[in-house]
Amino acid sequence: MNDHLIKALKQLRLSGLLQSLDLRLQEAAGHSLNHAEFLELILQDELAVRGDRQLRRRVKAANFREQKTLDDFDWSFNPSIKKKQIYDLATGRFIREARDVLLLGPPGLGKSHLVQAIGTHALRAGFVVLYRSIFDVIRDFLHDEALGGEEKVLAAT
């Protein structure tokens, strides 16, 4: 690869294409790919890298305590949890239908694990997710109330 091409790819922020270009050039030569096939491959590489980066940013923004999946969940631990319902939630249909879901129960039943796993599925489906436990929500409300109260006090002086 020549320096002008590398510079242009960097300037265009095509890092995924830059990473795979040497391999794809060899592949194109070895498989006699035409220009359109070669272009499609390198663009797919770029889209894959961008998709991975976007998913990583969204996972970070979701504020999960831990990265959980449904595959990691021990379904035998709490047989009262209906696996089919959880997998149905993981499809994200309730989000598209603007429906709410609330998981209730005492500590230690797996609610946090399941919610984070469902959130991970939602992220992969392109939804924006923010994980908050009830304790986080209460803390946020108290913080906002405290700030709002402070602003009122400042406005009154």
What does this 3D model show about the protein?
The chain is mainly α and about 160 residues long. The chain folds into 2 domains: about 60 residues, no CATH class; about 70 residues, no CATH class. About 65% of the residues lie in helices and about 0% in strands. The radius of gyration is 23 Å and the shape is elongated. The C terminus is likely disordered.
Shape label: elongated
DSSP, total strands = 0
The chain-level structural class is mainly alpha
Q: State the separation between the terminal residues, measured CA to CA.
A: 67 Å
Order of helices and strands: HHHHHHH
Tag the structure with descriptive keywords.
157 residues, mainly alpha, disordered C terminus
Summary, kept brief:
This protein has 157 residues and is an all-alpha fold. Helix content is 66%, strand content 0%. Helix 2 (15-31) runs antiparallel to helix 3, helix 3 (35-62) runs antiparallel to helix 6 and helix 4 packs parallel to helix 6.
List the helices and strands and how they pair.
Layout: H1 3-11, H2 15-31, H3 35-62, H4 83-90, H5 93-96, H6 111-124, H7 134-156
